[in-house]
Amino acid sequence: xxxxxxxxxxxxxxxxxxxxxxxxxxxxxxxxxxxxxxxxxxxxxxxxxxxxxxxxxxxxxxxxxxxxxxxxxxxxxxxxxxxxxxxxxxxxxxxxxxxxxxxxxx
Length: 106
Hints:
The chain has about 110 residues and is mainly β. The protein contains no helices and seven strands. The radius of gyration is 22 Å and the shape is elongated. It starts with a strand and ends in a 28-residue tail after the last strand.
């Protein structure tokens, strides 16, 4: 069983966590990526990203994880592929509401 030191959710179904597979504080502490798109299954392991130090904490911004990596200092990990399509996300909404005029009370 792995010990999770810290994790960060990206809001799009991924979590990045500082993980120790031995449940100890002396390492190896690496960074693991999890699929959290299903709120009832938040520990679906995707991959481990090794770090040179002992990952203790992690924060994310724009697809990059910033890891407090013990004696190795700050590790910067690009955990998402860059957006090469250049297309912004889009959404379409539809409504099924029908407007009606208020009726006069008798």
